[in-house]
Design goal:
By secondary structure, the protein is α/β, with parallel strands linked by helices. The protein contains nine helices and eight strands. The strands form two sheets. It has a six-stranded mixed beta sheet with strand order 1-8-7-2-6-3, sandwiched between helices. The protein has a two-stranded parallel ribbon with strand order 4-5.
Length: 296
């Protein structure tokens, strides 16, 4: 009973801080978004994007503070070093929960440039946040196949062209949706812990700005006590989070060649499949290391 009351109080306080944080950030973002819309010039964009990025990083920092205040989560971090804040990164991660987004923001905030997600088009209508994501140049993807798929790739191309202006981290949940056992069964995935990887958005990022990327950051997130919900995060009921990061060199055969020809999607899919196979095995290894008490 006491635990339920405590969780309710924590959840209520965390929710209030989260909402206030969103409102304050939006009040700062909104006028800048209007400037960006009315004055779409490069020098204006440089200034506005710089300010917007710092507002977003402060928003993430406040979220990290309330996450630490309401919970006693033990963070087991592997490979989170040797980054440069002024670089360009292609980031890939497995996807299990909405919590993944805040986990990634927390561990990478101010270590690498602000993460720019490929997100579902419907989320542009989310009050306040939709405009903020637009202002921050998050590419909105419809993911319906056919003509919509072609439009998604064009959206990704335009977004990635903008990312050439300032250091950026482009992140993609290549599974396209959150992993669940039912989705894995329906998809007949060859992996134990992952859905099949989709390479459309990542391929466009590599085709458009591949030469800028320092490397790919291959991120593996594991929740050893079970996949949490967003309510678990708000109420501080996440005991352990494992985040492993590998810096992977991007092979030349998945980039535009010297003749300006786009990379072979077959080569790209083969490269990503290899990363996915290694990630699937890594999840087993990280889980075993956690149970054996080998992770700090």
């Amino acid at each position: 009973m006491l635990h339920r009351i405590s969780s309710f109080i924590k959840g209520a306080l965390a929710s209030i801080v989260l909402v206030v944080n969103i409102v304050v950030a939006f009040s700062l973002v909104f006028p800048l978004a209007l400037v960006k819309l009315v004055l779409p010039f490069r020098f204006v964009r440089l200034i506005v994007d710089f300010i917007l990025s710092h507002i977003a990083e402060t928003w993430i920092a406040v979220n990290s503070m309330w996450m630490a205040a309401v919970g006693r989560t033990r963070w087991h971090l592997v490979g989170l070093d040797k980054f440069t804040y002024k670089g360009w990164y292609l980031v890939s991660s497995n996807h299990q929960s909405w919590v993944d987004i805040l986990v990634l923001q927390k561990v990478f905030n101010r270590k690498i440039p602000l993460l720019k997600f490929f997100i579902k088009h419907e989320l542009i209508y989310v009050p306040l946040m939709g405009l903020a994501w637009w202002a921050l140049d998050f590419p909105f993807m419809k993911r319906k196949g056919g003509a919509s798929a072609k439009k998604d790739l064009e959206t990704a191309r335009k977004a990635c062209e903008k990312y050439k202006v300032i250091p950026t981290s482009v992140i993609s949940f290549m599974e396209g949706t959150r992993y669940t056992p039912s989705k894995a069964k329906e998809q007949k995935t060859p992996y134990k812990h992952l859905l099949k990887a989709k390479t459309g958005g990542v391929g466009m990022a590599l085709e458009t700005m591949g030469e800028l990327f320092n490397c790919m950051l291959d991120v593996t997130i594991v929740y050893p006590k079970g996949v949490p919900t967003f309510v678990d995060l708000l109420t501080g009921n996440i005991e352990d989070v494992i985040v492993s990061v590998r810096q992977v060199e991007i092979p030349k055969d998945v980039l535009v060649n010297e003749a300006g020809e786009p990379p072979s999607r077959g080569h790209l899919q083969q490269w990503i499949n290899g990363i996915w196979q290694a990630k699937d095995q890594e999840i087993d290894q990280l889980t075993a290391d956690f149970k054996a008490g080998k992770l700090k």
